[in-house]
Every structure is written in structure tokens, then in C-alpha cells.
């Protein structure tokens, strides 16, 4: 059995001061994927650089300081690490890392990735950047699945994909149809990840008829209290691994003051 969690921490240093450290100490996850770390290894709070019970974490900061950044904690040493996905434009932008874990307890070897897909902004250069990233990344996903299948390995891409795929994935979908993150072309691209590249949205596979469960709520207004959220944090896996998923939950905070990020952890347990 392996439990994997993904969460956008909205700045690891800020999250550390709000309760992330206690959450990490208490989690039963074997792998924790982080997005929007906004710090390199030296800037990470000392107690989070090599916390007890974890191998030395992997951090990939963005070349632009204070932006993006992904990271990963794992209980066992990975057999391989990779920063970026072979993109000349995006490999130094702190948006993708992956590790290989060895087979264990009847599970196949698993490659775990942490992804922070650009958020975009409708009608701006930021949206054009997001679209370029999506084009390159889909090609990588197709090639990665073929490569790993030949090696007898499975892949799960965990992270903030910054796209709500269906109407059930955000509360106020009618008023957000021209908003980045729910644009028709973005949703169609994510459909291609599933239908053409052959990956599986693990949460949705286990909860096909559920509204949400949402993983992000704006800090503005009373979005969290009213559960006016978006489901944009996913674990998207190759079919063989997705078939081993036994449970998938969003670790929603009990109340607004308990939050240490505007996102909540998404946790999936896989078992042979």
C-alpha cells in the first residue's frame, strides 16, 4: 500500500507558520507533492529541510524568485529524480519534478510527479504561456506513458492543474465560463489527457457522481465558509495504477482559521 498526497501550499514559508509543519508530522502519507513552494532549499524553514521520518526532500524552485516552485517529500529514497520535462521554455520555471520509487508490497514501480501548471489569465500573455505549456506537456505525457509501460512502471502526476474539468468541479460554473481555469479550450485539453493520452482522474473515477470535492477556495469573501470552491488539484494516473486506488479524499480544514493554504491536500491510497 502507498498513500500519496498533493497540495499547493501557497508559499511554504507562509504555510509553515500557519500549521503545515504539524500537518506534515501527523500525515500518514508516504509521498507528499508540493506546489507553489516559492523557495529554494536554502530558503525552506530549517525544520522542513530534513524532517524526521522523511528522506531529504526534493525542491525545484523557479528561476524567477518568489514564484512557482515544486517540491516532494518521500519516506524512501527515490531511485531516480528528474527536474522538468525536457522543455526549453519551462524546465527552469519550477513547475515539474518526478521521482521513481521501487516496487514494494506487490505494487509496481511508481513514478510520482509534482506539477504546477500555469494559472493563466484570459486574454493576456499569461494565458498564452499556459497554452504553450499545455501543448508541450501533453506531448510529454503521451511519451512518458509509452516509456514507462515498456519499463513495467506506472505514473501518477499530482498537483495543481489549474483547470476545473467539469461543471461539477466548481461551485459557480455558470459565471466562470470565460474565466481562466474553466475555459472551453482548457477543459477540452484536459479531456485529451484522459481520452487521447489515456490517463485517469483518480478522484473522479472513485467519486463519479459527486459534486467536487473542491480543493481550492478563494481567500476573498466567504468562499470557504460557503464551499464556493474549485476542484483543480488532481492525481492523474496511468490506468494500471488508477485501478489500484482504494480511497481518495480532500483534507478540508475544519474551519477558515485552521487553513494553512487556500488549497487543501488531496490524498489517495493505492493498494495491490
Automatic annotation (TrEMBL):
Enzyme class: hydrolase
Keyword Acetylation: no
Site (described: Interaction with DNA substrate): 263
GO biological process: DNA repair
Domain Endonuclease/exonuclease/phosphatase, first and last residues per copy: 6-263
Residues annotated as site: Transition state stabilizer: 162
Keywords: Hydrolase, Magnesium, Manganese, Metal-binding
Protein name: Exodeoxyribonuclease III
Active site: 116, 160 (proton donor/acceptor), 263 (proton acceptor)
Catalytic activity, EC: 3.1.11.2
PROSITE patterns: AP_NUCLEASE_F1_4
Organism: Actinospica acidithermotolerans
UniProt GO molecular function: double-stranded DNA 3'-5' DNA exonuclease activity; metal ion binding
Binding positions (Mg(2+)): 8, 36, 160, 162, 262-263
Matching PANTHER family: EXODEOXYRIBONUCLEASE III
Family, similarity comment: Belongs to the DNA repair enzymes AP/ExoA family.
Matches recorded under Pfam families: Exo_endo_phos (PF03372)
Amino acid at each position: 500500500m502507498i498513500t500519496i498526497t498533493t497540495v499547493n501550499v501557497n508559499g511554504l514559508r507562509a504555510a509553515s507558520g500557519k500549521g503545515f509543519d504539524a500537518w506534515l508530522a501527523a500525515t500518514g502519507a508516504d509521498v507528499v507533492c508540493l506546489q507553489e513552494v516559492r523557495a529554494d532549499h536554502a530558503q525552506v524553514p530549517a525544520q522542513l529541510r530534513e524532517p524526521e521520518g522523511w528522506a531529504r526532500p526534493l525542491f525545484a524552485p523557479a528561476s524567477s524568485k518568489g514564484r512557482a516552485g515544486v517540491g516532494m517529500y518521500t519516506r524512501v529514497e527515490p531511485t531516480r529524480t528528474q527536474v522538468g520535462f525536457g522543455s526549453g521554455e519551462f524546465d527552469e520555471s519550477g513547475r515539474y519534478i518526478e521521482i521513481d520509487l521501487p516496487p514494494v508490497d506487490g505494487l509496481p514501480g511508481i513514478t510520482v510527479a509534482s506539477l504546477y501548471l500555469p494559472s493563466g489569465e484570459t486574454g493576456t500573455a499569461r494565458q498564452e504561456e499556459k497554452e504553450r505549456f499545455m501543448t508541450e506537456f501533453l506531448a510529454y505525457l503521451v511519451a512518458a506513458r509509452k516509456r514507462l509501460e515498456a519499463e513495467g512502471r506506472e505514473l501518477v502526476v499530482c498537483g495543481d492543474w489549474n483547470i476545473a474539468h467539469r461543471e461539477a468541479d466548481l461551485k459557480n460554473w455558470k459565471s466562470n465560463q470565460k474565466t481562466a481555469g474553466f475555459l472551453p479550450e482548457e477543459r477540452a485539453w484536459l479531456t485529451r489527457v484522459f481520452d487521447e493520452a489515456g490517463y485517469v482522474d483518480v478522484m473522479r473515477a472513485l467519486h463519479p457522481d459527486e459534486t467536487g470535492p473542491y480543493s481550492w477556495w478563494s481567500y476573498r469573501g466567504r468562499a470557504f465558509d460557503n464551499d464556493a470552491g474549485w476542484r483543480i488539484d488532481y492525481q492523474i494516473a496511468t490506468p494500471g495504477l488508477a485501478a489500484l486506488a482504494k480511497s481518495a479524499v480532500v483534507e478540508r480544514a475544519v474551519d477558515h482559521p485552521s487553513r494553512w493554504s487556500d488549497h487543501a491536500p488531496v490524498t489517495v491510497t493505492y493498494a495491490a
